[in-house]
Design brief:
Elements lengths: L24 E6 L4 H4 L6 H4 L7 H17 L3 E4 H11 L2 H14 L6 H5 L3 H10 L1 E2 L10 H9 L4 E3 L12 E4 L2 E4 L10 H8 L9 E2 L19 E5 L2 E6 L5 H12 L8 E6 L13 E5 L2 E4 L1 H4 L10 E4 L6 E2 L5 H9 L4 E4 L5 H9 L6 E4 L2 E5 L3 H8 L4 E4 L6 H13 L3 E5 L16 E5 L5
Parallel strand pairs: 1-2, 6-7, 9-10, 12-15, 17-19, 18-19
Antiparallel strand pairs: 1-20, 3-4, 5-6, 8-9, 10-13, 11-12, 13-14, 16-17
Helix pairs in contact: 4-7, 4-9
């Protein structure tokens, strides 16, 4: 695909399908961090959910390495901006106007929507992600909102950037053969789920996108769900974090309205009761699957420790009231579902100090490209060491290696029984998201297939 010819995106529509977390990854969507990162300042941290300013060039290079690993492992890697441009080029005027109006309303500048909606598809796609300056919007009438913004805003932007879009896992998530549109918990990310769902029309039939009815009039507790909280364990089982970003009310609503009635094979949804804290904002910040019977996790919360039980888990089943599983932590549930041979590789190794440090730098947030082959930031050395003690071999990728050399290294790593592909990630990890956060799988081989 080429970003210069979005209308020509010719990737054939293929039904999405995800019934597991580890089988061979065939198709995935990413967003390479771009100008939206460059347009942030330290004054945006609280509003845009960042802890530091990222280096745009280095962040992009690190993301390129991750995408290279994904491709080398056999996945088709789709770029969000290209998909959005293609979807906009093919859309009807009312659909395009509706999307732009939503973005502009969340930014508090609904008056600029008609001007923005008339922009060509490529320019509009870029604007919806990177943001738009007031001086780019010719003919837009003056307003009190604009006057106030220009009095205080250092960048003079009508629509601000959307830097969190690089965390592709959250706005939409593929569950079985459909795409579930998220309900973003924060104002900073409010426009993302509708934007991403629109972009996915370029490669997914619109009828596959579910849980997307307008529900902005409902109380926020009934409409907060982000994809980083959802682990698709099998055709019969999901595990969802009841977290800072995903509410208990929305999990139950999702199960009763959109999952159990549609998927008769789905028997259990486990809700993990998590503290509402930024350090553990999603379930995948403390637990990810790395092989058919292996998980990477933050031991104190996932398994517990002597005198300190792990997180509590509630089981939801069709036609039954939610049931708190007495005395069971997430690891107990996983062993019940996958067998007693399930192993938990401790993020940060065995020492509590390093467990805390590397959980913060996304040591538990790995993405599987095939069973036993995962991507992780190289900075999490204690986690890599814990993986090596369990039979994983580290294969480290760097920008100083020639592309041909990297291709050979990745191919060799895929031939090994267990591999952890590591790359720098020093800038990416400062944004608080690892390989799983940065990827939205659309298709994997079926479990057991």
């Amino acid at each position: 695909m080429s970003a210069r010819n979005p209308a020509g995106v010719s990737t054939p529509a293929a039904d999405p399908y995800i019934d597991n977390e580890v089988e061979a990854l065939r198709r995935v969507v990413v967003r390479r961090p771009g100008r939206e990162i460059e347009r942030m300042t330290q004054h945006d941290f609280e509003r845009l959910l960042f802890d530091d300013i990222l280096s745009p060039d280095e962040t992009g290079r690190e993301h390129d390495l991750m995408a290279e690993i994904l491709r080398g492992a056999g996945a088709e890697v789709l770029e969000l901006e290209e998909l959005l441009a293609a979807a906009l080029a093919r859309s009807t005027a009312p659909d395009r106007e509706q999307l732009v109006a939503h973005v502009c309303e969340t930014a508090g500048v609904i008056e600029v929507a008609p001007t923005l909606a008339a922009w060509p598809a490529e320019r509009l796609a870029r604007a919806l992600i990177e943001g738009v300056y007031w001086h780019e919007l010719e003919g837009v009438p003056e307003s009190l909102a604009r006057t106030r913004a220009l009095a205080f805003e250092r960048r003079e932007m009508a629509v601000g950037p959307a830097p969190n879009l690089m965390f592709m896992r959250d706005p939409c998530v593929c569950i079985y053969d459909q795409i579930l549109r998220g309900r973003m918990a924060t104002q900073a990310r409010l426009r993302e789920s509708r934007t991403v769902a629109f972009a996915l029309r370029a490669v997914v039939d619109e009828s596959r996108i579910i849980f997307d009815e307008p529900d902005e009039d409902r109380h926020p507790r009934y409409r907060k769900f982000e994809g980083g909280d959802c682990l698709v364990l099998s055709p019969e089982v999901l595990m969802i974090g009841c977290s800072e970003r995903t509410t208990a009310q929305t999990i139950e609503r999702l199960a009763r309205e959109a999952l159990f009635p549609v998927y008769p094979r789905l028997q259990r949804v486990y809700a993990v009761l998590m503290p509402e804290a930024r350090s553990v904002m999603h379930l995948d910040t403390i637990l990810t699957q790395i092989d058919r019977t292996a998980f990477l996790g933050h031991g104190p919360l996932v398994a517990g420790s002597p005198g300190a039980p792990g997180l509590q888990v509630v089981r939801l089943e069709p036609g039954r009231v939610p049931h708190l599983i007495d005395g069971a932590a997430p690891l107990d549930v996983l062993r019940e579902e996958f067998g007693r041979e399930v192993e938990l590789v401790p993020c940060g190794g065995e020492e509590p100090l390093h467990q805390e440090r590397e959980q913060w730098t996304d040591g538990a947030n790995a993405v599987c490209v095939s069973p036993g082959h995962v991507i992780l930031y190289a900075r999490n050395r204690r986690t890599v060491g814990a993986l090596e003690r369990r039979g994983f071999e580290e294969v480290r990728l760097s920008i100083v290696q020639a592309p041909e050399q990297r291709a050979e290294i990745i191919a060799d790593g895929m031939k090994r029984e267990r591999t952890v592909f590591s790359f720098s990630g020093s800038e990416l990890s400062r944004a608080r998201g690892g390989g799983r956060c940065l990827t939205m799988p659309l298709r994997r081989d079926p479990r057991g297939g």
